[in-house]
Amino acid sequence: MAKYRLLIVNPNSTQAMTESLKPQIQALAYDNTDYTYFTAPAGPKSINNGADADASAEVCLCPLLQLVLAGAPSDITTSLQYDGVLIACYSVHPLVSGLRAALAIPVVGIFEASISASLQLLDTTSNDRFGIVSTGKVWEVLLEEGVRSLLATKGSPESLARFAGVETTGLNATELHDLPAADVESKMREASGRLIAKSGGRVKVVCLGCAGMIGMEQCVREACTTKEQEGHKKVYIIDGVKAGVGMLQILLRGGF
User: Fold this and answer.
1) How far apart are CA 108 and CA 100, in angstroms?
2) Residue 217, CB half-sphere, CA atoms under 13 Å: how many?
3) What CA–CA distance (Å, rounded) separates 11 from 212?
4) Is the pLDDT of residue 158 over 70?
5) Per mean pLDDT, which range of 17-21, 77-81, 89-93, 113-117 is the poorest?
6) For residue 101, which phi and psi values (nearest 5 degrees)?
7) pTM of the entire structure?
8) How many CB atoms lie within 10 A of CB 215?
9) 245 CA to centre of own chain
10) 8 Å CB contact between 133 and 207
11) How far apart are CA 207 and CA 109, in angstroms?
């Protein structure tokens, strides 16, 4: 069986953030898959708001189409180079819709993948909820709008009621790796604790709302463990990058 070929896209221009994804993705141990990594050739070093997302899409779209469609006839939209694409930015990123419109292969965003995974873990007979821990405060509004738009389109009113909201650390994506680890972990634990507390302990799933948070599950889990010890239920931690790679595996293995 031929290996799946996935293109992992970091739409900001910080190569170190791309490098941080590689060991975590390899650790998923999908031996049937080869990965190629793309970093934006220019543009924002950290995507901190909607304008940054738009600017990064402008920089990346044409180079990505050239890369994905290299060697294919001009009237063909199925890639000869890759079987699927992952956009590793936790936002409603324009590259997801832009590449989907241009390509006939699966294109998955880590934001959408994490929300889909969250819904699979909620008990539909209870009041379980999911929420997001992200970076700067601007994302509290942007991600909430994104969740409501996604669930209104593909979910139901009941799904919207399952959303506990967004709490943020006040850090941007590059600061997650540049600041002392103890400071970052403290802010991650604080944001996670606030998310669980404001839901009255009903949060069962916490999504890591930034690709730069990959590998940081443990400090979020520590905050959740404290809440569990206070009588709350087990909390799942979802990393969007890992969920996105898994979603592409499902789509490709299923032949969709």
Assistant:
1) 9
2) 13
3) 12
4) no
5) 77-81
6) -70, -25
7) 0.90
8) 15
9) 10
10) yes
11) 14
Q: Could you give the CA distance from residue 210 to residue 43 in angstroms, rounded to a whole number?
A: 18
Residues 111 and 146: beta-carbon distance below 8 Å: yes
Phi, psi of 74 (to 5 degrees): -65, -20
Helix residue spans in the chain (DSSP H)? 15-26, 50-68, 94-102, 110-121, 138-154, 157-160, 175-178, 181-198, 217-229, 240-253
| Residue 55 identity (one-letter amino acid) | A
Tell me the sheet residues that pair with 238. Answer: 207
Burial (CB count within 10 angstroms: exposed 0-12, middle 13-18, buried 19+), residue 165: middle
Q: Is pLDDT of 228 > 60?
A: no
Q: CB–CB of 18/94 below 8 Å?
A: no
The strand pair at 107-109 and 163-168 is best described as unpaired
Contact 4, 252 (CB under 8 A): yes
Alpha carbon distance 128, 119 (integer Å): 10
Residue 6 phi, psi dihedral angles, 5° rounding: -110, 140
Q: If we measure between CA atoms, which residue out of 148, 173, 227, 172 comes closest to residue 195?
A: 227
* Cβ contact 167:139 at 8 Å: no
Q: What angle do CA 52, 165, 87 make, to 5 degrees?
A: 40
Residue 255 CA to residue 168 CA, distance in Å, equals 37
Helix (H, G, I), strand (E, B) or coil at 108: strand
CB-CB contact of 109 with 147 (8 Å): no
